[in-house]
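dumping this here before i forget
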Amino acid sequence: MLEGPLASYHPIVWLMVPVLAVLTWFFIDYIFARTCGGFLILTANELLRRGFGNDVALRPLFSTICLALGVIGLFMVGVPWRLRILLENHAGKRYGRIIAASLWICSAALLVLPFFCKNIK
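structure:
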C-alpha cells in the first residue's frame, strides 16, 4: 500500500505488524467479531469492484447480497458484543439455523453468480 516516496517505510510497517498484533490482544475486546466484520466489509467491497468490472448475472441480487454482508460487517465492527449475544442466545435454536441457512444461501449465490458473466471490453 505504500508506494512512491512512502516505499521507504516498508521495513517499519513490517516491524509494526507483530507488535500491533500482540498489543491488540491485550487492549481490544471482541477481536474475533471485529476481525470477521472487517473481513466482511473488505470482501463486500472487493466483490462489488470485481462484479461491476464484469457483466455478472443478476447484478441487482449480487449487489444486494454484497450490501447486506457489508452492513453486517459494519455492525460486527461497531457493536461486536452483539455477535456474542447472538451466538449465546440462538446457538442450536431455530433462529440460529435460520441465520446459518441465510448466510449459506448468500455465500452460494456469491459463489455461483460470477460464473455466469461476460467480460466487459
